[in-house]
Amino acid sequence: MGPINWLAVILSANLALAIGFVWYGPLFGGSDLFGRVSGDQGRGSGLLSGLGGAIGLQALAALMLGHNFARIGAITLAAKPWLYWMQSGGIALAFIVPALWISYAHQRIAAREALVDAGFWLVVYLASGTVFWALR
Questions:
Q1: H or E stretch including 74?
Q2: pLDDT score recorded for residue 48
Q3: Most buried among 45, 71, 92, 113, by the most CB within 10 A?
Q4: 50 Cβ neighbours under 8 A, 6+ residues apart
Q5: How many other C-beta atoms can be found within 10 angstroms of the C-beta atom of residue 134?
Q6: pLDDT tier at 106, thresholds 50, 70, 90
Q7: CA distances from 73 to 3, 65, 126 (A)
Q8: How far is CA 54 from the centre of its chain?
Q9: Could you tell me what percent of the chain has a pLDDT over 90?
């Protein structure tokens, strides 16, 4: 196992937050973005709500991608750079999106919201793969 690229982890997590502000703001969110980010919308106000929860979860996701790429190794990734997007997009499509759809179906949340959220996570994971590729 090679070393984790900590700079890519930090930049990847920050890029994910930036994408989130655009995705859930001007693109699909509307005017209550800051109410949602601050956890001020009446739905749970637990540990994982608000901006602090978003930062922590994005950092955890970026760290796990960094660990994944370190396990693959620099030599393999240099020979097969498409693995950055295949791995990151594959995680989103095989784990994150199905988990969202199952959870949203159970909670009877609208399909539009599920599509918006699924698209967000796919874009975030592909962007994260790009960060790790660019900083290899």
A1: helix 74-79
A2: 52
A3: 92
A4: 37, 38, 39, 40
A5: 10
A6: very high
A7: 8, 12, 19
A8: 10
A9: 71
Report CA Rg, the chain. 16
CA angle, corner 111, sides to 19 and 128, nearest 5?
25
Mean pLDDT of 48-63: 82
Give the whole-angstrom CA distance, residue 128 versus residue 66.
9
The whole model's pTM is what? 0.85
Distance CA 131, CA 5 (A): 10
User: Measured on CA atoms in the order 57, 1, 6, 89, is the torsion positive or negative?
Assistant: negative
- Give domain limits for the chain: 6-134
Answer yes or no: are the C-beta atoms of 13 and 61 closer than 8 Å.
yes
Half-sphere exposure of 118 (CA within 13 A, CB side): 19
